[in-house]
Amino acid sequence: MICEFVIVGGGVHGLATAYQLARRGAQSVAVLEAKSVASGASGGFGERGVRANRRDLRELPLMAEANTIWPTLHEELGAPTGYRRTGGAYLIDGAAQTGFKGIEAAEVYARAHRALGVDVEVWDRERVRREYPGVSDAVHGASVVASDGVASHEATTQAYAQAARRLGVQVLEDTSVASLETDASGRVTAVVTDRDDRIAVTREVLLANNTGVRDLVLRTTGRDLPLWAFYPQAMRLSSSAVPVIPMLTGHESRPLSVKVLGEELMLSGGWRGRVTPAGGQPDEDRVRGNIAVLQSVFPYLTDLEVLGVDVSRAESASVDQIPVIGRCAPNLSVAAGWSGHGWAIAPAVSRHLAETLLHGSTSPMLAPFNPDRFH
Fold first, then answer.
1. Distances from the Cα of 42 to the Cαs of 46, 164, 322, 346, in angstroms?
2. Full DSSP string of 196-231
3. Phi, psi of 43 (to 5 degrees)
4. What are the backbone angles phi and psi of residue 298, rounded to the nearest 5°?
5. Neighbours of 300 (CB within 10 A)
6. Are 2-47+154-229+317-374 and 88-146+232-312 equal in CATH topology?
7. Per-residue pLDDT band at 93 (split at 50, 70, 90)
8. What is the pLDDT of residues 118-152, one digit of tens each?
């Protein structure tokens, strides 16, 4: 088998980039997925936040672009994405305990975001109480982005897979990568699967297999990217009280992210599962801790029932908490280290990444994420 482009990883970034490559005229693109499409961090129950609010400033131009794509992405892909523009709020507990954040810094953050294309409004205490009746008295304000929303990560990833296949992309599931063959110049010449199948590469290999990127790069090039794996905790809850949480809601200084899904709550916010040899496993102390934070912000949610806890979907993080996107060898690129917030920018990243792979020059939008920043 011979391909122009081989992408390792059948999550949203790998499939979206494959789709964009094919859409731009690439003749042969293969996506290799060790399990099944959306079986990792790009799948699972519930919805993911499409969030610009309090995002790293280096990601904001991509987020502003993604906000123009998400509303009609389902039409482009010919399948539902579950996208809803709900608005997003970050609640703020008065003055900051340290020198960063806090209500006195909210407008400064808002101005910085607005300058980079994301409109942010700062609510005072009274406005927060009107919109979030029953919220804790400790909350003194909020930063709010009306263009924030949510989407189904499972549906969106599957939609990209279907659209890519229609354009001729080969999506090979249950296909793990054993090694990458290189020539004397360090150029990748072939991808070898765990079944000893050899896929010759004529142009570029993209590693988008999340937690597997670091090991493949290290074994192939000797370069150790500053990435590690973790297992985010996502919970489904029911409540006897009706939660008045009108939008995607986080908290500036507490580990909390919550959204209403029909009659359920989806709760996360950076909490992690336990790492075991079998993968991520729920930790009861962290489950209780996550719920306690939710109840500290919304004290009327006294009667909560845990319907499910998922910590099975590993994510990769980078040392500076922004993605690693770019070349690590002459024709070996990576897209990893999303640090739990790469989902929302995928529609924009994939466009720029496809252009970079096709034409060889790094898009200015991706320049801040180049792996060379660590050297």
1. 11, 16, 17, 11
2. --EEEEEEEEEE--GGGHHHHHHHHHS---SEEEE-
3. -130, -170
4. -125, 80
5. 15
6. no
7. very high
8. 999 999 999 999 999 999 999 999 999 999 999 99
The secondary structure of 80-115 as a DSSP string is ----B---EEEEE-SS-SSSS-SGGGHHHHHHHHHH
Domain boundaries, the chain: 2-47+154-229+317-374, 88-146+232-312
**Nearest Cα residue to 17 out of 161, 120, 153:** 161
Reported confidence tier of residue 87, pLDDT bands at 50, 70, 90: very high
Name the fold adopted by 2-47+154-229+317-374: FAD/NAD(P)-binding domain (3.50.50)
Its CATH architecture, for the domain 88-146+232-312, is: 2-Layer Sandwich (3.30)
326-361, pLDDT tens digit by residue?
999 999 999 999 998 899 999 999 999 999 999 988
Extract the tokens encoding 101: 């954040």
